[in-house]
């Protein structure tokens, strides 16, 4: 576990969002681990996924931490909680500075580009003029690829896992199904911190079907008692995972962040996806997962095809989309090969 305390950064000015709305005051919670070296060239910036937080050592063990590929003894690691979340960064439950009341379901629409704008303001605050490696998976990968398109000179290496250049119709449909579950909960409109909790529980159950694979469920949730007629392992697993998320997250942030994910399209107002990806100058590793049904491998192959000189690697995993958080041994092997090849060439 990390012993570092989180930091809080307040943007020096209001943040105008891509939608045209303005957040008058934005605070970003972030963690740092390790120390900048004398050359200031050992920065690793992590962009986290949908319901994660800024404490990357707590949710990406095996890849980040003592003895891992990204060891704080060697790297200066930065991870910032995304805009719209509920882990310390401005979001739907943050009191408005004028009304002193949270916006709840009326929080303005956010996009991936708005999240990147907050990251960029934090980077400037930290006076980091270059980043050795920018890494992210899923929603974090969407942020990373968008940022690399915006600031091609800033990043030396880019690592994208289980993500895409544009959120697919399939992914948007999954997110909308989850939001419909939340909206069907009448408490969502009550604008209280626990509003929409039952809907969020159902939404998480829907999401799990996209995070894992049929093989993963068959391996871990098949009942050995063939006489059962009810209360199957798979059923109790869905309820358990829903309860876990409700205990640590809220429906308003979930709706906000899932909508931001839907907005992801690096080609918007840039002449299309291929033209946008062509701007990236970082040496790039793109990692797909064989069993990922939410971000199938062809989406990572598209990234690798249009990012100049990108290396593509695909992990063989039965964990589905969640493999990018679990298969850290495979990811480490890919990273070791990537860095060796990058510096040989």
TrEMBL record:
Pathway(s) where this gene product acts: Amino-acid biosynthesis; L-methionine biosynthesis via de novo pathway; O-acetyl-L-homoserine from L-homoserine: step 1/1
Binding site for substrate: 204, 322
Catalytic activity, reaction form: L-homoserine + acetyl-CoA = O-acetyl-L-homoserine + CoA
InterPro entries, per database record: AB_hydrolase_1, AB_hydrolase_fold, HAT_MetX-like
Active site residues according to the UniProt entry: 138, 292, 321
Tree of life domain: Bacteria
Name of the featured protein: Homoserine O-acetyltransferase
Encoding gene, per UniProt annotation: metX
């Amino acid at each position: 576990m990390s012993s570092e305390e989180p930091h809080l950064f307040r943007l020096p000015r209001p943040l105008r969002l891509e939608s045209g709305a303005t957040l008058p005051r934005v605070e970003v919670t972030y963690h740092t681990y390790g120390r900048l070296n004398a050359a200031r060239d050992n920065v690793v910036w992590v962009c986290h996924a949908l319901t994660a937080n800024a404490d990357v050592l707590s949710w990406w063990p095996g890849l980040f931490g003592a003895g891992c590929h990204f060891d704080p003894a060697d790297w200066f690691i930065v991870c910032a909680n995304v805009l719209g979340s509920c882990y310390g960064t401005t979001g739907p439950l943050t009191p408005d500075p004028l009304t002193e009341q949270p916006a709840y379901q009326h929080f303005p629409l956010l996009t991936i580009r708005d999240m990147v704008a907050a990251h960029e303001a934090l980077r400037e605050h930290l006076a980091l003029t270059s980043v050795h490696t920018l890494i992210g998976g899923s929603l974090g990968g969407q942020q990373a690829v968008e940022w690399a398109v915006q600031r091609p000179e800033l990043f030396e290496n880019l690592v994208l896992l289980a993500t895409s250049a544009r959120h697919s119709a399939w992914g948007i449909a999954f997110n909308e199904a989850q939001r419909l579950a939340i909206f069907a909960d009448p408490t969502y409109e009550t604008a209280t911190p626990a509003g929409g909790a039952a809907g969020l529980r159902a939404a998480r159950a829907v999401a799990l079907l996209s995070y894992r694979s049929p093989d993963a469920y068959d391996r871990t949730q098949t009942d050995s008692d063939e006489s059962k007629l009810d209360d199957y392992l798979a059923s109790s697993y869905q309820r358990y995972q829903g309860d876990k998320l409700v205990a640590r997250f809220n429906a308003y942030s979930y709706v906000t962040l899932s909508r931001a994910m839907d907005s992801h399209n690096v080609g918007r107002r840039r002449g299309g996806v291929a033209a946008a990806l062509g701007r990236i100058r970082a040496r790039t590793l793109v990692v797909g997962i064989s069993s990922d049904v939410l971000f199938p491998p062809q989406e990572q192959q598209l990234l690798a095809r249009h990012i100049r000189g990108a290396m593509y690697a695909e992990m063989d995993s039965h964990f589905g989309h969640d493999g990018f958080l679990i298969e850290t041994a495979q990811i480490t092997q890919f990273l070791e090969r990537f860095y060796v090849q990058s510096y040989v060439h």
